[in-house]
User: Fold these one by one.
Assistant:
Number 1:
Amino acid sequence: MKLWSGRFEKNTDQLVDRLNASISYDQRMYEEDITGSMAHATMLGARGIIPQSEADRIVQALGEILEDCRAGKITFSEENEDIHMNVEVLLTERIGDAGKRLHTARSRNDQVAVDLKMYLRKEIDTLQEKVRTLIAAICDKAEEHLESIMPGYTHLQRAQPSTFAHYTMAYAEMLTRDLGRLADCRVRLNQCPLGSGAACGTTYPIDRAMTARALGFDKPTENSIDGVSDRDYVLELASALSILMMHLSRFSEEIILWSSYEFGFVTLDDAFATGSSIMPQKKNPDIAELVRGKTGRVYGHLMGLLTVMKGLPLAYNKDMQEDKEAIFDAVDTVCNCLDVFTPMYRTMTVRTDRLRRAAAEGFINATDCADYLVKKGMPFRDAYTCVGRLVHDCIAGGKTLETLTLEEYRAVSPVFDEDVYQAIDLMTCLLGRTVPGGPAPDMVRAHIAHTRALLPSA
């Protein structure tokens, strides 16, 4: 018999039970459910709402159930619908009628809200640590390649001089913003809904601040209706995870391109690549491709959650049970992707010779050549036109700016002199970009140091 069956004359259909049950996925919140119940029982005893002796028995028995769950000694039942009912049934089986007092001044509506917040708070902490580890890996490899010149790109066309360090630290910057989004979500999440009841609080003299403190929340929620019907924190986390996955997907796309024969900028470690069942020469970047593909999965969960919530009247509606599978899978997916992406990145080999060759062949010093003319007094638009003609001539003649003769330069503009070769040298171009945020080694070194300062546990 279900704990809520008092006003019903018939048992629910088995198909209804199957659709209604959530224990298959919300059992992962057993620790949060039990610790939340322990805090609630402690408060009930302290306020004299239930006898202190019974509160003590409840807390002790819940602690024993928690240890049994951790030891794998508990099997949850679909008949009891969800983790909340399963724990309450176990408690009552162990201590009898005293266990039935636990749910005094509480609803499953505020219970599930506090469980989910506590669970996601813990997962956010885990996610932040995994992101910090990846950022540290990017910083480590960047320090090895401060002077590894490569092209910077726009429109996937070679554009201006960069370095592998400068290029990849762009992803460190993106991931740093992801850390900020996760931290912001955690702050807004960390208000305790326990005590909101089903929607409109309770007539019992509970102490919401006491349970909030006991469970590590900053304060109780301000409105009991919002306390049980709010899922903004789930949506916000799903949004932050979607942006994070977008960054991982972009980075994966770079690695997929870079590891191809056409680019050849990096070589993936054998432990993080796969082969073909028919083509013996293949070494496929499957890990990066899977991360790129799983991004759509996380996006889908965000859209699903937004759709679930978009038309719900206040307060709680059963639709909101759909929040858990989506956010749990989104969190799991991102954690799994970070777990494998980081060692893949750490172990890949950067082919500096191929980077340098690409830099030498792409006219990435054309802007610097134009700037050379500007510094000698020519208006930028005229300088732009002159260098555009030079590039056109180089392409036609199979040359580069470095291999043009001074006579060929002067045929376009008499302003050119011998010092043009020093001005367009790739290392000169790189070292001259000392604007904060630029690719000059000292600037990137400062960026790495700034980024590491944000990673106290990395």
Number 2:
Amino acid sequence: METYEILRDLAIIVIAAKFFGLIARKCKAPMVVGEIIAGLIIGPCLLNIVEPTDFINQMAEIGVILIMFSAGLETNLQELKKSGLVALLTACVGVLVPLVCGSLFYLCFYGFAPWGSDEFFKAVFIGCIMTATSVGITVEVLKEMGYLTTRVGQTILSAAIIDDIIGIIVLTFVLGFKDPDNNTLLVTGKVFLFLLLSLVVGYVIYRIFKIVDERYPHTRRIPIIAISLCFVMAYVAEKYFGIADITGAYIAGIILCNVRDADYIDRRVSINGYMFFAPVFFVGIGLKTSFDSVNADMIFFAVGFVIVAMLSKIIGCGAVAKACRFSWSDSLKIGVGMMTRGEVALIITNKGLGLGIIDSSYFTAVILLIIVSSVVTPILLKLLFRRTENAAGQKVPAAASEKEK
């Protein structure tokens, strides 16, 4: 492929991503939905202006690594400490229930497969896709209504952070068992060895960063070194431990999330991600999505996938909240607040496609899940909170009232 054709494709991708992303935001939907739709429109599915190439796939891989690094940087370890056992249990069960329900749904839909077979592994991977939570929209709704700082709001926020960490660890194990010749003990040992090494080396790197950050605050060398760490961790994870590169990038972000300039690093990284690499990744998903193999069965599967994914989060997270002595109403709010899906679900799906676990037709189910959960969650949360206010005869909290003024 000629260089000028690459430049043309990149220009079309970036412009289309931003245009449809802004339209999605105007429609109160996540920008990633618009960017995926942009890929569907300009790709082989419709206009066929841009075709997926190895170069675009490689740029998309850098994009997903930067996204996960940024997610790690945004992790608030102090909030996790405050949230304690409730958020941890909510996150653990909020991962386990969708994982089990998703796997069983696939096996029930396509027929049960023997333990360890390719179809069984595929079923587990489908469950793995359901584990991810994206609470960006939930946070905005809770902020708007003034409930983000309440016990319910903080539980949702903290559980979602822990949820992503556990989800990435689960993905790491699942991908480690992809090869049927892999020894179970060896795979488990590699994962724990990498996590242990990350803990030890990460602490040393954190201390070094903290010293450099105090001496040279807000200098450009800080984010440059941070991105270098991100790429090194991603490389080491996949090359020497057989773990997904995104796991290494995510842990690199967590290592640096408590340094004084973490926000500064995140802003610098986000500039590259927001302007170029992230749009290439999300548009690339649209480019790779094919509707050729989408038939009536796949449509029914996609609808069932969405229902199971949303209900399993509500049941799993809500049940734990109730067991931790939240009221039925607050338990339902926590469950609903945790059911949105976003970037991480797409990242996991993309990994499965790249490794040949699933084909591109499954993106249809994931995209539908993101759209439906993004639309339904804010509506349900507002209804639940307003019903509570009306039942208690309370007014909207001060934070919300001031915002409206």
Number 3:
Amino acid sequence: MDINYCLRRGEEADYADLLDFGNYVFKIDFRSLLPKLYGNHPELSADHVLVTEPGSCGERIRAMVGCFKIPLRVGGDHLLVRGIGTVSVHPYDRGKGYMKLAMHKAIDDAVAEGADYMVLSGRKQRYQHYGFDKCATQYEFELSASVYDQLRRFGVEGICPPVDETGCRVLSEADSRKYADVCRKLYESQPVFAVRKDFVETAESWRSELRVLEKDGQFAGYMTIGHAYGSYTVNELVLRDEDGGEDGMGYLPGVVALLGAAVRDGAESVQVVLMPFQSKLIRCMTLIAEHCRICGGYGINVLRYAPVVQAYLQVKADSQPLMDGTYVFSVTGREKVRVCVADGRVTAENVGEEVPADIELPHLQMMNFLFAPTG
């Protein structure tokens, strides 16, 4: 079809229009849902790829893809990630190929700026076409209201007596904000974290509340508890490492107090999401949760394998012994990488075609081999 359209990056003058467009297509209020992006951030207009058509009153947005910068700290390394979101096409313009145009431009731009990988939340079958697959491992635990009552009355059979949450206090949302700097410091003590311009604004996105835990009058950690879609989800639960003990059971009083706050707010169950490096908290949650699953939480598209593998494998080496050695993997049609481990230090570098590979796989399969829970 001969369609008159323009494919371009957004400008600050587009901010109100692109917000209205996203609200219309998704039928939600992005300003309240994602204040970190749409609260009042016209400077992020350029992080949107727009497809427009001419109209009687000027350009009209017909499709849009958000492609947001996420500076990431992985151990001692800095990675640049681009997060894809607000992928939207006007209902009247579906079938014109606008989403493909915008997605490919977002990916091409990320490659051109040297981004290491991209991340999104969306249907696997839709985004595999663009090089994404669900590989990023996360642990999900379901804690029911009955767990709260059981732990307070009986504890864990043969392991601990009834859990006494005396001395543990969950602060209100308003009082929790006063601890913003302390929460940020604890958050940034983790092996992997995204650099946040405004910690509270980010923590309260997805209609979440920042809730701080005090233990014996001292800051002990925080959670972000959201109920954007009717269910209670703790997307971040970060507690002081020294409180957990060797087996993580020292976290129980605080976890019970946090669960109690959600139950008193009307939650019948709470889903808690943890990252693989939160090993002691994972052991605690495994013991008390009604359900647990290990899953690929996000779709990722690795653009530069060497720095991504080096950064994440080093995080692993920092927490558990890795065997010394060298391994070469080849991503069909893309790059060949040699990984070396020596005395707990990891290096990864691109090598030429003359270097024999220990394994060669296409892009999607290689991401699963390296990064999926089943890899």
Number 4:
Amino acid sequence: MISEKMKQMIGSSSAIRAMFEEGKRLAAERGADKVYDFSLGNPNIAPPAQVTEAAEKELRECKGVFLHGYMSNAGYEDVREKIASSLNARFGMNYGKDGIVMTVGAAGGLNVVLKALLDPGDEVAVISPYFGEYRCYVSNFGGKLVEAAADKDFMPDPAAIEKALSPKTRALIINTPNNPTGAVYGESALKAIARVLEEAQSKYGSPIYLISDEPYRELVYGGVTQPYVAGYYRNTLSCYSFSKSLSLAGERIGYIAVSPDADGYDELCSACSVATRILGFVNAPSLMQRVAADCIDVPPDIAFYDSNRVAFEKALDDAGLEYVKPQGAFYLFVKAPDGDDLLFCQRAKDKGILIVPSSSFGVKGYARAAYCVSPERISSSAAAFAELAEEYGIKKRAGVDKTHKGE
């Protein structure tokens, strides 16, 4: 028999993955052309050519076991040095290779950091809405997740964050550009977060770490920029993934960057390295470490995602559905017309549209739609979205130019 805790986790398994699996079932039942799956943040664009070239070069030039064998739990020293140098050049930081730990994606990095930081009963604050798997990650190590609601525009609310902190708080997780809203936390927001955390550290007499979950860091639109989070708060641990920027989601490669001035820096670096081993990762994938290092400064194809964003917004505008206009990432947060996100997603599924209820992200009244799909899927779904809106008494409109909630 499995554990009681695992039974609970199965019962509350990721709605994103559940919807993705439902999509496969519906495609087999109705035909793939009648199913419009926007459930999973799985990039539909091929990796840049440099990725293939780097992989071929590394495989061609490897010498026996040296490419495929074990290395330091933290990863290859030269790879970590290259990543540190890139971050320093791009963001004016002062990382050394010892502050970089290669990880099995950002998710692996988050679990490593939480393993390093948490004792049972410790608290981790999050800004809602948030990626639902944070609940499981914190629970893995006996921690308690405490929610701080974002403001009406889905930006951090300093007062709510302050209220969520306590003497038991070990960390605050932030995610910008945000999954699921697409909100980007600018300089003023980051300064406000840093101020609240600094005050709480002084009040409670212990460090509170800022865990920055950064898989969408480069995916921003319309002249928006994403400031580098660690530049605003010294107790920051940045968890990055190449899943989105280089379309390598299945390869599971990323890194943790520990700010050089963080409290307990040496212990943090050692703890993250040991946590990588004892959690069973042992080390990040060896080939992909070298490929990532070779492609560290290769930019993502922003134009592809931006074009999809514009097309998806038009489809929703024409249908008359409201949504949060995204500044980054590749999600649209669509407003449920009657406020019932679960019913909205069920009705959408009846039309062949697969989207994820916002209840999975800690808020009600919206649904997340991922537009990292083929352009054809977006265009072919427009009629289904219009039919869905009509069920709510919303008339189909064409050529609409409007301002969206959250813009």
